[in-house]
TrEMBL record:
Coiled coil: none
InterPro entries per record: Nucleoid_associated_NdpA
Protein known as: Nucleoid-associated protein NdpA
Transmembrane segments: none
Compartments in which it is found: Cytoplasm, Nucleoid
Keyword Protein transport part of the UniProt annotation: no
GO molecular function, one term: single-stranded RNA binding
Alphabetically ordered keywords of this record: Cytoplasm
One Pfam family this sequence matches: NA37
Signal peptide: none
Annotated family: Belongs to the YejK family.
Species the sequence originates in: Cellvibrio mixtus
Superkingdom, taxonomy of origin: Bacteria
Length: 339
């Protein structure tokens, strides 16, 4: 990992009605292998977890001062440590109306990556566990719960400063106390939640229309490559860019010009966003149809419909031809054993 700075501060309230207290470090951590391991584990879990929203900073700097402090930090008018202190004081203020108890740490992680610099903030708590010491005596200990955190944010710093994106802040709020989550959202200055399901659905409709202008083989390659690209972007927490996707398709299908797909989008759907965050579930279901109940689970490639698989909506039945050999063998064996 290309860590540039990492620091952590504690915020806690142990009794209802009491004030939230801060315990601030006086210096950033000296980078070492353990810190890199911590940052990597937090980053990996953040990518894997759901409950994400995508947006930007609020323009109301009086109420949401964190972006101004962050800009001062990037311009070296404010040290990373001072920025983190101001941010913690802002979080403490945002928690004034919260009723939940809390004892947690905000870990600030700054990275310099090839695709751009990022700042990530994770709200992490301790967990307790039992262990046997060197004399085989049972004892308990505390450890940072790097897999169970529910609140975090990632800021794509280059995208924010360039002004070319409206989805440079990724906020994760997964199954946490509502009042704490609202305070964290306010503290981050997050706004403009994106309807990623609707945007993904509109995008996939354009891909369908585009694929219908191609021969069957090229259309299948195109749809598969679109899915691969979108899932890769989603895993990396990055937006799908229509122009970049168009170039990627041209690399896969040599008959394409690099601008072919982007020109099609601009001419047929000019109001579609040139950049959006993909919804992973909808992207996966675009090339696979799946479903299950208590006794049946089924999944198949969507282009099987009308060929190996026929659906009769009136009878609500599926007719399947060209069964997989392993499934066919199991069926034959089961029929023989049942008679």
């Amino acid at each position: 990992m290309a860590l540039t700075s990492i620091v952590a501060h504690r915020i806690y309230r142990h009794s209802p009605g009491g004030a939230f207290e801060l315990q601030l470090r006086n210096d950033v951590f000296a980078l070492n292998g353990k810190l890199e391991e911590l940052a990597y584990e937090l980053k990996t879990q953040f990518i894997r977890k759901g409950g994400k929203s995508y947006g930007r900073f609020s323009d109301e700097l009086g109420e949401f001062p964190l972006p101004a402090w962050l800009r001062d930090c990037r311009d070296e008018r404010l040290s990373f440590l001072s920025f983190s202190h101001k941010a913690m004081q802002q979080f403490q203020q945002a928690l004034e109306k919260a009723e939940s108890l809390l004892d947690a740490y905000i870990v600030f992680v700054e990275e310099k990556l090839e695709v751009g610099d990022t700042l990530s903030l994770y709200l992490v708590e301790h967990q307790s566990g039992l262990y046997l010491d060197g004399d085989l005596v049972l004892d308990d200990s505390l450890f940072l719960d790097t897999t169970g955190f529910n609140l975090a944010a990632k800021i794509q710093l280059n995208d924010w400063l360039s002004g070319d994106s409206t989805t440079y802040v990724t906020l994760m709020r997964a199954r946490s106390d509502k009042d704490i989550a609202e305070a964290f959202t306010h503290f981050i200055a997050f706004t403009d939640k994106q309807d990623i399901k609707q945007e993904t659905a509109e995008f996939l409709k354009v891909v369908d229309d585009f694929s219908n202008t191609l021969d069957e083989t090229t259309a299948k390659i195109t749809r598969t490559k679109v899915v691969d690209y979108c899932l890769e972007q989603n895993k990396a927490g990055k937006a799908v860019t229509i122009a970049d996707l168009s170039s990627t398709l041209a690399e896969e299908v040599k008959s394409y010009e690099p601008e072919r797909f982007v020109r099609y989008v601009e001419s047929t759907k000019p109001d579609i966003k040139p950049e959006f965050i993909p919804h992973a579930g909808q992207i996966r279901s675009y090339v696979r149809i799946s479903g299950r109940n208590d006794s049946l689970s089924m999944s198949f490639a969507s282009d099987c419909l009308g060929r190996e698989i026929e659906y009769d909506p009136e009878q609500d039945t599926l007719t399947i031809r060209n069964l997989p050999p392993a499934l066919k063998a199991r069926l034959i064996k089961h029929l023989k054993e049942s008679h």
